[in-house]
Amino acid sequence: MFEMNPHQLPNAVMQHWIMLLVSGALGFIIGYIGRKATIRQLEIQISATAGQVEDCVKFSQSQQEDVVLQRISSRANEINFTRIGQATLLQADDLKEINGIGPFFEKKLHSLRIYTFRQLANCTAEDVEKISDIIEFFPDRIEREDWIGQARKLHRRKYGV
Predict the structure, then answer these.
(1) Alpha carbon 34 to chain centroid distance?
(2) Are the beta carbons of 132 and 78 closer than 8 angstroms?
(3) Is 19 strand, coil or helix?
(4) What Å distances lie between residue 1 and 4, 5, 42, 108, CA to CA?
(5) Which residue, among 81, 75, 129, 137, has the nearest Cα to 106 in the 3D structure?
């Protein structure tokens, strides 16, 4: 049968324990180094995936914005342009100067073909209600923030009227 000390060495048991400890230490070191390398590779993959997810979210948001703007643009014919006036993008004022209008709401108004302070200044309560509905804006916010009054002041200041 198998014997632990075939040569009858006096310190064979001690040698076996030392070899066991050394092999355990080497196994731990090799495993530790391998695990660190795996962790580094996974962190790189996570970083790349996070970047891709962020790009997808941005792309998705821009697609959603385009869908909203197209939906609004399709309803532009509901606005009474004979009353508020016609304008083109070349004549556009910076509608963001009006408190309460940010970049996206300016895009929404542009998709309705509302480009100038004069057009907003000419809006009646009926027009404001229709614009709020079309651009999917909170009811009464245009009145609360006095977009029409601000547009009148900005139009006067710009053209000295």
Answers:
(1) 37
(2) no
(3) helix
(4) 10, 12, 49, 90
(5) 137
Which two tokens mark 161?
């009227």
Euclidean distance between CA atoms 77 and 79, whole angstroms: 5
Query: Read out DSSP for 124-161?
Result: -HHHHHHHHHHTT--TTHHHHTTHHHHHHHHHHHHHT-
Domain boundaries, the chain: 75-159
Radius of gyration of the chain (CA): 36
Q: In whole angstroms, how far apart are CA 74 and each of 24, 87, 161? A: 73, 17, 33
> What is the pTM assigned to this prediction?
0.61
Longest alpha-carbon distance in the chain: 115
Residue 94 tokens, joined:
């910076």
- From residue 95, alpha-carbon distances to 29, 40, 43, 47 in Å are 65, 49, 45, 39
| pLDDT tens figures, 94-129 | 999 999 899 989 999 999 999 999 999 999 999 999
Identify the helix (H) or strand (E) that includes residue 106. helix 103-111
